[in-house]
Every structure is written in C-alpha cells, then in structure tokens.
Input
Amino acid sequence: MKNNKITIEEVKKYWGKKNIPQQWYSKKKPFSLAWFNELAFKRFGKYYDYLPKDAEFEYHQGEDVLEVGCGIGTDLVEYAKYGAKVSGMDLGEDQVRITKLNFELHGLPYSEMKVGNAEKLPFADNSFDLVFCFGVLHHTPNTKKAIEEMFRVLKPDGTVLAMMYARGWKHYLKRCFIHGILKGRWMANGCSWQKVYNESSEVHGFTPKTAIHTKREIKKMFNKFPNLELRKKRLGEFFEYKPYRTVMFPKFVRNFLYLLNLESLIGENWFIRAQKADFKKDAKLWDVIFNKY
Output
C-alpha cells in the first residue's frame, strides 16, 4: 500500500492461495467433485442459507449472467444448473482455473471465464441480464467505480444482486468492542477504525480493505440505479476466528430471533437488488384498499 492507498495488486495477492474463500468448508480430497459438492452443501445449507432464494438461482434460465468475483465457482454453478448462460470473472488466475474445473467436473457449460478487475470489467456495454457479486465490493479499492462498471455491462432492463457487509451485531461486538477496545487495536492503529476492520475481518485477518457500510452509504454508491432494494440478512455464526472453531447459535435461538424479525436489525450482510430500468413500483397496501376501487 502506497500513500495509504490500496492497490488492486495488493487485493489480488491477499485473496489468493489460502485466502480463496470456501475451501476450508470441506476436508475431502481438494478439487474433487465430492469436495466441490460439500462446499456447496455447507455454503447453502449452513453459512448462507438465504442464498438459494435471494440469489434467484432458478429464475434466470436462458439469460446472460455474470458473476463478478467468482471465487471457486460455487454460486455460478447454481445459475448454470438452472440453465443460465453464465460468465465469470475474478482477479486471480487460480480462482478462474478452479472455477473452470468446478464446471468441468459438473459437466456444465459456460460462456466466458476471465481474469479481470471489478473496476474495469472486461465485457462490453449492455451484455448481461443479471450481474451477481457476493462479498467482493467491500474489499475493492474503488467500490463506487466497480458498481458503475456493473451498471455499464447490464442490459437496459438488467439487475444487480450483490452482498456487502453491514454494521450488524457481530461487527460491533467482535470488531469494535473485543478487537478495537479490549485488545487495544484501535489505539495501536492510531485511532483508525478502518484499520481495525481490516485486521479483524475474514478467516485469516489482515485484509488490505474490508469496508462495513451503512444503508445511506450503499444508497449513495448505487445512486445510478433507479430501483434499489436493501435488506439485512444473516444472523451469522457466533465467532469464526478459525474455520474449525466456527460455532453457530442453537437453532431454537435463531428461530426466536427470526420470529422477532431481528435479522433486519442485527444482520451482518446487506443483500442488494438494484435494477437499471426505472420500473414502476408495486402499489402499497393502503392504496390498493382505499384508492383503487
């Protein structure tokens, strides 16, 4: 990092090798079909159980779908299983190679799989019906530029589905209170909360950049999209300092929190649905009852 400015090369270097996400979900033979299958089982059945519904995997058959930051291809494979014409892109050569292997072992086709930069997508204007980007934007040096690039490559009526970190309960407890205050990392980092976030985020910590965004910040970054929906998702594990020490709330506790709709207040992810076209919004219940007849 030069002059406190994060570079794409730093981000690329960090997210390679041991830091490529999801690979610690399985102890089966790495890069085997059984390994890829268990990664998907853990991802959709335990860690991000809201994804199968909110990512709309089954609803884009025949459409052109791009994943920005494809990782090892777990999510993109799901779109392909349901008949989408998929393309993927990632900063790292290893990620692209592993994603191609994932598709090959599942016997699924893809359109393009490229090494590239989210801030300068290697695709033409108006190319995709859907752009999916999960857990990438908050690590990108110029997040606003990456969002503008997704807008550019979308077709006129296209949709972006994205996940960015929210300031949920675990952010304040784990990052701010435990690491920042109790462990003294805030003072040690010159009273910089951003440096604390970078140190205490992700499985192995010490990321080049991990941004945690408010609703207002996300609305500002997505201001080119006329239709924007934001929802907090994922109550989250208790702590996950190491993959093998991840402990979740008991199911009855999670069900109770869901019953009280606390996910919308303390969830740790923003799930974003942004549309390029200015579609007319659905009528409100009050209008339907009192003004439509």
